[in-house]
Fold this sequence. Notes:
By secondary structure, the protein is mostly helical. The protein contains 1 helix and no strands. It has one helix at 21-42.
Amino acid sequence: MYPATPHGVALRGARVHRTPVLPRLRAALRRHWREAQRAAAMNVPTGTVKRGRA
């Protein structure tokens, strides 16, 4: 199996996101909310509005 490591410490060679889970979740929720607001403002279905520049 895998050797035991302290929480938050990556194994050598493993590529692990160092960003904590909650801020990432919060950012994703904010992004979806913003996209939904833009879609509602333009009166188009959600998922059809590009984020940022075209």
